[in-house]
Amino acid sequence: AQTVTQSQPEMSVQEAETVTLSCTYDTSESDYYLFWYKQPPSRQMILVIRQEAYKQQNATENRFSVNFQKAAKSFSLKISDSQLGDAAMYFCAYRSPNTGNQFYFGTGTSLTVIP
Amino acid sequence: ETGVTQSPTHLIKTRGQQVTLRCSSQSGHNTVSWYQQALGQGPQFIFQYYREEENGRGNFPPRFSGLQFPNYSSELNVNALELDDSALYLCASSFPSTYNEQFFGPGTRLTVL
C-alpha cells in the first residue's frame, strides 16, 4: 500500500512570510495524483492544490505552490505571504488511479501563523 | 451547488451499541467515500461506494458497513462499538471527471464511552 509521510508535526510562520511544508510518499506506480488539503478548526477539509504526476510543471494556486520531485517522491507545499487565515492542519494526500478514488493521507502538519 | 453535508454533527454512544452516520453528496457526484480520522491523525479510508455498490475497502472490520442510495446519499453503520471507534468520521463525494478531487463534508464527531 502507498504511504504518505509528513515529518513536520508542527510549523509556524510570521504573517507575510513564506513557509514550506514537507511531504514524501512511497509508491511503485508511475501515474498518480497528489493533493494538499487544509483542515481548519471547523474540521472541513478544503482542497488547496493538486498535482498530476505526469505533469513536470509544478502546480500553483495564487499564494500556494508545490515543489514536485517525482524521482525523490517528494511533494512540498510552499505558502507565500502567509495570512492568519492560513492557520490550520495541512494534509498531504496520494491517490492512485488503480484504487478508485481512495486517498492515502499523511499525519498532517499543524501550521501556526504568528501576527 | 450544494456541498457535502453530514449528520449528526456530534454523537455520543456507549460501548457495544450501534450507530448510523449519514452523508449527502455534492450535487452530481456518484461516488462517496468514508474516512475515519482519529485525534491527531490523518484520515483513514474505510470504504467507497459507486452507484450503490461497494467499490473498495480499507483495513476495517466487517462491523463497519455502508449503504449508498439511488440519490447517491450514503450511510455508514458501525456495530458493536468499541472505545477505539471514537473519531471524526468524514464523508467525501466525487465524480470521476473532476480531476479526481474529493469534496469533504464537515464530519461527524463520534465519542464512544
What share of the residues of chain A lie within helices?
under 10%
Mean pLDDT of chain A: 93
> How many extended strands of chain A?
12
N-end to C-end Cα span of chain B: 38 Å
Reported for the largest beta sheet of chain A, the result is:
6 strands, mixed
Structural class call of chain B reads: mainly beta
Mean pLDDT across all amino acids of chain B? 91
Could you estimate the helical fraction of the residues of chain B in percent?
A: under 10%
SS strand fraction of chain B: over 45%
Shape of chain A: globular
Biggest chain pair contact, residues each? A-B, 26 and 29 residues
Q: Kindly state the number of beta strands of chain B.
A: 11
Helical stretch tally of chain B: 0
Verbal overview:
The complex is a heterodimer of chains A (115) and B (113). In chain A, the strands form three sheets. In chain A, strands 2, 5, 6, 10, 11 and 12 form a six-stranded mixed sheet that branches. Chain A has a four-stranded antiparallel sheet with strand order 3-9-8-7, with no helix packed on it. Chain A is an all-beta fold. Helix content of chain A is 0%, strand content 51%. Chain B is mainly β and 113 residues long. Chain B contains no helices and eleven strands. Chain B has strands at 5-7, 10-13, 19-24, 31-37, 44-50, 53-57, 64-68, 74-78, 87-94, 103-104, 108-112. In chain B, the strands form two sheets. In chain B, strands 2, 4, 5, 6, 9, 10 and 11 form a seven-stranded mixed sheet that branches. Chain B has a four-stranded antiparallel sheet with strand order 1-3-8-7, with no helix packed on it. Chain B is globular, with a radius of gyration of 13 Å. The chains are: A mainly beta (115), B mainly beta (113). The A-B interface holds A 4, 6, 33, 35, 37, 42-47, 50, 91, 93, 95, 97, 99-108 and B 31, 33, 35, 40-45, 48, 50, 55-56, 58, 88, 90, 92, 94, 96, 99-107, 109.
